[in-house]
Each structure stands twice: as structure tokens, then as C-alpha cells.
Amino acid sequence: IAATQPSTDWHLKENAREHHTSKFSSEELIVRRGQAFTITFNGAERPEQNLIFIAETGPKPSKATKTLATFDISSTVSKEGWSAVVQSSSSSSVSISISSPHNAVIGRYRLSVQSGSSSPQSLGTFVLLFNPWSSGDDVFMPNTAECEEYVLEEFGIIFAGNKNHISSFGWNFGQFQGDILNICLAIMDRSLYYRQDPITDVSHRHDPRYLGRVLSAMVNANDDQGVVLGNWSGKYEGGKNPTSWTGSGEILQSWKKSGFKPVKYGQCWVFAAVLTTVLRCLGIPTRTITNFSSAHDADGNLRVDEFYDADGNHLERGADSVWNFHVWNESWFIRNDLGPSYSGWQVLDATPQEESGGIYQCGPASRHAIKEGEVELDYDGPFVFAEVNADCMYWNYDSATGKKTLIFSKSTEIGASISTKAVGRDARVDVTRDYKYEEGSAKEREIFKKARKKLGLEDKFDPTAPKQEEVEQKPDISGKFKVAGSLEVGKDLNLLLVLENLQSDAKTVNVNMTAWSTLYTRRRVNQIWKDSLSVTLAPKEEKQFPVKIKYPEYQQQLTTDKTIQVTALCHVKDGIQVLVKRNITLDNPAIDIQVLGEAKVNKEVVVEVAFTNPINEEVKDCVLQVEGSDLLQGILELRIPPLKASEKSSTKFKLIPSEVGPKHLLVNFFCDKFADIKTFKMVNVIN
After folding, report:
1. What is the distance between the terminal CA atoms of the chain, rounded to a whole angstrom?
2. E strands of 402-476, at which residues?
3. Fewer Cβ neighbours under 10 Å: the N or C end of the chain?
4. 525 and 611 share a domain?
């Protein structure tokens, strides 16, 4: 090789097109494993003679750990290792097609070339990613529309609210924007696994199962100064309220800019969305999943205990809880460790709830194993199984005597309307049947018993043979809360308490009612209202009692989750207590986006956002935040003047789209009376 440093043409455009990496905005070659890429370099004489290539990654590359490969020119692509095939050559340059194995370690590689006995010359660096388009890869996804959605799509919809009232909001994953790939590579190099043993850690980076688990730990700040710090207190001083984020980019950039200090604050959907960004960026097909009425079974007995006092107040006793919803991830890869039937979607959960192997990480748990009650299979089966399947026990607790009495138990409460975004469209798909057999069916109970048996729990609590204090008596009355009217922030909340006498003799009932503002985890924050009533129900009679909670009563107490728990504890004379409860999620008022004119690449287009103040008082401190991959850089923040009662505001701003195709604009509006009113709009950008 001549003394001059060889200059390398990485054929960035052509290689990116072949490798589905065109969306990255990088001057560095980014390719996928198990597939050939072409480079041309000059500065070589009769170059195809005895050239040896060296590809290496990690701190101490070696052949033993598969982090170092040396390979010479061959006539065909190697089935096993790395290979180089000459495409064409001239007197001064040579084009080489380089292939990596299907199970290569992913990450940033250094590539050099050596001729004869001279010392190796550096050709530069490239990044190697997982390849879901390639049938030999552990993450191979045969359906290309699913590859487009779960790897290449930068917009997502996350479902929230509660099972009676599912709401949704958009999220900008932004995995191809700016510096996100470099930040994702940095996350891997800051994990506890890497710090303890960098050489072994890097050698495991061929395995999506390993990386999924490591990254589920790194996305939360617990243990390892990871990306996002969780906060479920209802008080978010010193950071951003978890409901205010609209994308992962701002979070990942902040983490890097601060010198890798955890970003404040996240709750479950933030952890899940950031993990989606990181895994899609690295090439592992990933989506967010929302589970409604999600159990957090802290003691591993597949049941959740909830305690109430005589007034119907929900007590913070015990570590178990039921969340209105919880968001986790599914990633797609094969499970060589478990066998073919357990391949496909795997559950990962980056929200720090329980330790696994001494740190806050969860998964991958095979979704098929969860459905079949195979809770002993790696990883964290019992916790995930309980999230969708635990039985609920409701107790009355007397703090004076310490006595607890079972009010009732329910086996159909947990794990409802498990939801994810549809492929290629902005709709909800229900995947509950992929997690469990039909609720209440014999098969579902059989699987539940199978799981308990595997965990050695048959004797501790068997729903078919309860202990004395767990004998469930038949109630004399039944009750429910019905919603009467709209559920909107700024409006009065109108409910009906419906009580029905199930017996053929009259019943006297004393009812204690409370309403609390809560977080989406149902943690109580402020008491809003309480009332009591006495009623006599004639035989088989049904009566309705209107409950009205006025906006001024709840306005100051409401959390940004906009959730209220209403309970009525009914003390039936000479009978057992009946607990009636309902978790209510209020909707924000609407906000409207209009794109004025056609959106064209590199041309200005005007967008108008309109909001009408729905309440009888002025709202102030109004801010509009806008983001959207390929529509604008970073986040646009606009201050809006105060709005009088019923006044409409209209705000215009300009976008300059940078890419063709369907793009999503995300808007978040907040002011002193309304937190985080979110909407999104699809903008079809043309040439």
C-alpha cells in the first residue's frame, strides 16, 4: 500500500438505501448485520492481491469474544464469519463488498486494511445494527409492513385513561433524529454490566435478549444513573411533569447534555417510550403496550390486596397496588433459550417497580409463556403474569383493632383492554387475547391455577378453599356508580349511585361516600368531597342517588393525571358491607390543528392551532409546545396571551418539512387551569 492514507468512499446513500438506514442523518456509514455493503478505497497498487481487512469493536477486541474479525478477499460470501468480495477495481482504486455474519455483535466498528507485511491502515468507522429484514437474524420479522412500523416509524400512539374510558396521545420516538444513535450507543456503555465487565458485555451485544434486559435497566435511573428518574408523588418541582413530555428526543438529549445525569421526571409511559426509541434505533422491532387495571403484585402471591376504612377511604396499606393503566414494551425476537414456541413478542418493562437479579430491570418475558402460565421461564414471568392476571381482594381494615374483614374478591378485574397502535394507521388494536384466555373461562382459571402451582402457592391461598376470615358472604345489596353527563375538566362531575336490594325483605343501608383526586396509579393525593346518606330499600327495589361534584370543588385538588376515585362503603344493617367504587378519568377540552395549504419538502407551510377557554374564568400562563420528526427541528415553544371566559385563541406558526411522506405534528397546550392538552395531526408531505 502506498504511504498515503487510503481515502474511503463509503457509498453512504446506496448502502443506506439497501440497509433501510436512510432515515439516519449521519456522515458515518450505518448498516445492518448479515447483509453486504460496498466501499471503495484508493491508494492501493494491484489492490486485490493479499489484502486483509480488520473489523473490531469494543475496548479490547478479540476473536474469542467475536469482537475482532480479520478476513481476506474471497470469491464468495462466507456463511459463517465476515467476508470481502471484490466488486470492481482499477489501477488506483478498488470496490469491495463486505458482509458481516447474522449474529455479529452490534455497535460501532473500526475498519482497517492491511496489505502484505505492512502495518494496517485505518479506513474509518461504521455502525452495525440488528437486521429485522434478514431471515438469519434473531430479530427477523417476515412481515415488511411490521418492520416499517416497529423499526422505521418515528411516531407512536400511547393509550391511557382507564378501562371504562380509554384515551390516547401521540409520541415522537424520533429514533433517527440528530445524535440519538450516538446516545443509544452511549447508554450501552454506561450500564452496570459494561462497567463491571466491559469485554464480556460487548461480546453479548449480538443477542437482543441480553440487550433488551440491559436497556430495560438503563432507561430508568435506579441503580445505574440511567436515563429517566421516576416520580409518582404528584409533586414535580425541580423537573418536568411526566405528563408534559411529547417525545423521547428531548429526554435523551438532556441526559447527554447534563453529563449523563438522570432526567426528571418519568412515569410508566415515559420509560416505555424511551425504551421504544432506543430499541427501534438499534434495529430491534419494538412497540408500546398499555394494560388497563394493571396489578403491581409486590409479594409475588398473584393476588392484590386493597384496604378500605369504615368511611370508604382507600388506605395505603401493603405494597400491592392496581394502576388505572400501565405501559410496557414488546420486542420481537427468537428465544433460543426457551424453544421456538416462545419466540415472537417478548415483554420488557423499564419502569422501576420490583428488583430482578438485584437491579430494577424486567424481561424479556415471552408473551406466549405468560398466556400459558409458564411463569418459571426466564425472565420475570411471575411479575408480568400478575400484571395481567392477579386476583383482587378488597378488605375492610379497622385501625383500632387491626382486624381485617374481606368485603369481596374479584378474579376478572385485572388486565383489561390490553392495547397497542395498529400497523400503518392511527388506531387501537386490542391484544388482550394474546396475554390470556377469555376472562372467566374455565381455561383462564386452569392457567391461573397452573401458575400458582408452579410458584408453590396452592396451599397459601386457594380461591376454592378459603381460610376462615376469607370466606366470602353473599351481599344483600349491589351497587354501582353511573356517569351522568360529560367527563370534562372544567365541568361539574355528575354521577348516579345506583343501589339495588337483592333480597325479598327491606334493607336499611348507611352509605359513606368519598371522592379523592389520585394519580393514574390510584395513589390518593387530595380529598375532594365526602358525604353520607341513610336509605331504606324495599324488597328487590333499586334506587338512584345523584352525586354532584362541582368544578370549583375539584379544580384545585385535581392532579395532572385528571383522575378521581369515588367510593361508597355501604353498611347494611345486620348484613355485610358492600364496596362500590369507580375510577374516573376526566378529558381535557379539545384543541384543534389546521394545516393551511399543501406541505411540501423544504417549503414553508403555515399551521394554525385553535383553543377555546371552556370555563367561566380567565386562564393565563398559556404555552404551546410543538414537535414532529422531519417537520421541525427540536421543540417550538410559543407563549399565548391570557384568555377570558369562553374566549378563543388562534396561534399560527410556520413549518419547513425536510422529508416526504406521512409525518405527525404533536401539540401540547398548557396553562394555569389546564395541564397538558395534547393532540396530533398527520401531515402528508409531498415533493
Report:
1. 46
2. 403-410, 416-421, 428-430
3. C
4. no
* Domain end marker among 129, 157, 191: 129
Given a contact cutoff of 8 angstroms between Cβ atoms, the answer to whether 512 and 532 are in contact is: yes
Q: For the sheet containing 416-421, what is the strand order?
A: 365-366, 344-348, 321-333, 286-296, 416-421, 428-430
Q: What range does the domain containing 398 cover?
A: 144-455
The pLDDT-based confidence of 48 (bands split at 50, 70, 90) is: low
Are 340 and 317 within one domain? Answer: yes
For 8, half-sphere exposure in the C-beta direction (CA atoms, 13 angstrom radius) is 19
Residues 6+ apart with CB under 8 A from 344: 332, 366, 367, 368
Lowest mean pLDDT among 6-20, 297-311, 433-447: 297-311
The share of the chain scoring above pLDDT 90, in percent, equals 84
pLDDT tens figures, 441-460: 999 999 999 999 999 986 55
Q: What number of residues does the chain have?
A: 687
Residue 292, beta-bridge partner list: 325, 416
Number of domains in the chain: 4
pLDDT for the residue numbered 317: 85
Question: Which set of grid coordinates corresponds to residue 373?
Answer: 402460565
The 10 Å CB-count burial string (b at 16+, else e) for 392-414 is bbbbbbeeeeeebebbbbebebb
Q: From CA 482, how far away is CA 545, in angstroms rounded? A: 10
Residues noted as catalytic: 268, 326, 349
- Residue 175, Cα to own-chain centre: how many angstroms? 14
Query: 3 falls in which pLDDT band (50, 70, 90)?
Result: very low
pTM of the predicted protein model: 0.94
Residue 432: how many other CB atoms lie within 10 Å: 17
Q: How far is Cα of residue 564 from the mean position of the Cα atoms in its chain? A: 24
Start-end of H helices in 106-232: 144-147, 180-188, 192-196, 198-203, 208-218
- Given 541, 558, 585, the domain boundary residue is 585
Mean pLDDT, the chain, whole residue set: 93
Q: Are residues 329 and 411 in the same domain?
A: yes
**Extended beta strands in 573-674, E state:** 578-585, 591-596, 599-600, 605-612, 622-627, 636-640, 648-655, 661-670
Residue 389 known to bind ligand: yes
Map residue 73 onto helix, strand or coil.
strand
CA dist list (Å): 140 to 102, 133, 150, 197, 333: 10, 6, 12, 29, 7
CB 81 within 8 A of CB 74: no
Cα distances (angstroms) measured from residue 8 to each of 16, 31, 132, 585: 16, 16, 28, 58
Q: Is 391 annotated as a binding residue?
A: yes
Identify the residue whose cell numbers are 378474579.
411
Give the cell for residue 428.
Answer: 387501537
pLDDT above 90: residue 341:
yes
Nearest to 174 by CA among 155, 195, 146: 155
Q: Is 306 annotated as a binding residue?
A: no
Which residues have CB under 8 Å from 20's CB, separation 6+? 32, 133, 147, 151, 152
* Amino acid identity for residue 385 in this structure: F
Q: Are strands 636-640 and 648-655 parallel, antiparallel or unpaired?
A: unpaired
- The answer to the question of whether 137 is labelled as a binding residue is no
